[in-house]
Amino acid sequence: MKAAPFAYVRPGSLDDVLAELAGGDGKVLAGGQSLVPVLAMRLGRPATLVDIGSVASLGDLAVTDEVLRVGATVRQRRLERSAEAAAVPLIGMAMPFVGHRELRSRGTVCGSLAHADPAAELPAVAACLEATIEVAGPDGRRRVPAGAFFVGAMTTGASAQEVVTAVEFPVARPGEGHGFGEIARRHGDFALAGVVTRVRVGDDGAVLDARLTGFGVSDTPVTRDVTSIVDDGDALADLAREVVDTGGDSHGSTGYRRRLFRVLAARELARALRAARKERT
């Protein structure tokens, strides 16, 4: 199939982007790796594509002592290969699993967040790290915690008149370790089940805080505090039954995905714990 007819504009400023989106019938185009297939299958029929590629202020990639800031037009491949990404180890762990290299060369980090595919890796990383997503609209800018940004499959808290301008990932702290794992039919496919973990330990190696985010298992990334069950296999099995609520399909039943989740959770929590304790030594 081919996309339904649409108008195309390429504004040079954020104000002009918002003016084009004011009618509510436009759609933001950044990398296009998620949007173009949707248009080709006519699952979406926007009247206007608003290309944000010429807005210079949206291309920032910078790291401070507190956060890694990624602008809306930063390509995934640019972030993957950047020195700045080292401040957030989960970026380096997850990025090779995001589609294929060719797609990452065009796709944007914020575009993946805005698309909100429940089986995508970057929304899960953002949720696990408690990243902040910056959104601009007719009423100004607002900052949304990642946990509140994803409200359903392919659905976010941003309105049709708003645009995601940046995401801020907190940098790793001393005594912090991470894990990332997923199972897919082929490399580059969306995950049948995936897990992102973050563990923090004290000077004595005791667990202070542990978070786990599952993806590909529900309508949104699902995050839980697992501080008390980091190495409790039975509790992780109970967690899998609670978290994995996606229906079965030709690629795997709900029960199969729960088994995948349980194994991945145990493995990636153990990996994160080892990394955190090693960082303390």
Automatic annotation (TrEMBL):
<dbReference type="InterPro" id="IPR016166">
    <property type="entry name" value="FAD-bd_PCMH"/>
</dbReference>
<dbReference type="InterPro" id="IPR016167">
    <property type="entry name" value="FAD-bd_PCMH_sub1"/>
</dbReference>
<dbReference type="InterPro" id="IPR005107">
    <property type="entry name" value="CO_DH_flav_C"/>
</dbReference>
<keyword id="KW-0560">Oxidoreductase</keyword>
<dbReference type="InterPro" id="IPR036318">
    <property type="entry name" value="FAD-bd_PCMH-like_sf"/>
</dbReference>
<feature type="domain" description="FAD-binding PCMH-type">
    <location>
        <begin position="1"/>
        <end position="174"/>
    </location>
</feature>
<dbReference type="GO" id="GO:0016491">
    <property type="term" value="F:oxidoreductase activity"/>
</dbReference>
<dbReference type="InterPro" id="IPR051312">
    <property type="entry name" value="Diverse_Substr_Oxidored"/>
</dbReference>
<dbReference type="InterPro" id="IPR036683">
    <property type="entry name" value="CO_DH_flav_C_dom_sf"/>
</dbReference>
<dbReference type="Pfam" id="PF00941">
    <property type="entry name" value="FAD_binding_5"/>
</dbReference>
<dbReference type="InterPro" id="IPR016169">
    <property type="entry name" value="FAD-bd_PCMH_sub2"/>
</dbReference>
<dbReference type="InterPro" id="IPR002346">
    <property type="entry name" value="Mopterin_DH_FAD-bd"/>
</dbReference>
<keyword id="KW-0285">Flavoprotein</keyword>
<protein>
    <submittedName>
        <fullName>Carbon monoxide dehydrogenase</fullName>
    </submittedName>
</protein>
<keyword id="KW-0274">FAD</keyword>
<dbReference type="GO" id="GO:0071949">
    <property type="term" value="F:FAD binding"/>
</dbReference>
